[in-house]
Known about the structure:
Layout (H helix, E strand, L loop, with lengths): L2 E6 L12 H13 L2 E6 L3 H6 L5 H21 L5 E4 L2 E3 L4 H6 L11 E5 L9 H10 L3 E5 L5 H5 L1 H10 L2 E5 H4 L5 H13 L4 E3 L14 H11 L1 H16 L36 H20 L1
Parallel strand pairs: 1-2, 2-3, 4-5, 5-6, 6-7, 7-8
Helix pairs in contact: 10-11, 10-12
Amino acid sequence: MPRVDIHAHILPGLDDGPVTVEESLAMARMAARDGTEVIVATPHYRDMELEHQTSRIVRELADTINAALRSDSVRRNAPSVRIFTGMIYKLDTSLPDLVDSENAITLNRTRFLLVEPPYNRLPAYVEDVIGRLLTQRLVPVLAHPERNVEFQRDPKRLQVLVNDGVIVQIAAGSITGENGTAARRAAEQFIRRGIAHVVSSEMHSQRSLRSPILSEAFDIVTDLVGEQEATDLFEDNPDMILEGHSPQLRERPARPRIRRLRRSWMRVPQVSVYNPFSERTQRKWQRRLRRATRLTNRG
C-alpha cells in the first residue's frame, strides 16, 4: 500500500504553505515520486480566520489541484496522487464551540479532527478540551506532540491521552532530526513505547525542512521497530483514519526482568574489535541502499 500523508500544508495562499498553484503541484509531484499516493490538505484554521476565509475555499482549491494532478499524471505518465481535505486547529477552549457550530473540517469528513498543542507548556485545560471533543463523538488527532516540552519530559501524560482514545501523529522532520534533538528523542521514544499511530510530513514547501519527503523517516522508523510497524505508521493507520476507523496499536511484549549477578573474583576479559564505521553511519548507508532499491523497482 502506498503512503498516506494526513497532515500537509499544500493548498496555495491559505497559510504559511505554498503561495501559488504551481508550487502546490510541485510539492504533490515530489510526494508522488517519493511513494505517497494520498495527501490530506490541512491548512491552519487560525490563518484562514484572520483572512476571513471560509471552509468552502479549502474544498474548491483541493478540487482545482486534483484536476491539475489528474491531467498531469496522464500527460506525463507520472505517479498519481490525490488531495483530500481537512484542517488543523489550535487546542484551546474555543474549539468545542467551533465544533458545535458545525464549522470545523475533519479529516476527509470523518470523525477525526487534527489538533495541535502548544510547543511549550501545556495549559491546564488541555485534558478538559480533549474530553469535550470526545463527548462530541470526535477523535482528536494530536499533531507533533513530540515537539511539546512537557510531553518530552513526561511521556506518561501522553500515554494517558492515548488510553482515552486520542490519536498521536508524529512529524517526519522530528524523526529525521530537523526539528531538533529533543523532538527526535521524544519521537523515537513514543514510537518505541507504542503510543504513536501515524507519521506525516507536515509539508510546507519543497525545501528540506518540512518537505513532502517521507522515505527517509520511514527508513529510520524501520530501523527502530521493524518494517511492519513502520508500514502501520506510514500506510495502514493513516488509511484507516481516512476510512473513518480508529487504528489499533500493536501490543508491546513485556520486558524480561534481568537478574543482577554478584561480582565474581573471576573477570571475563573484554575484547574490543576495531570498526571504522559507527553504528549510526552503518544504519545511514543501509537506509540509502534501501531507498535506492525502492527507486530502482519503482522505475
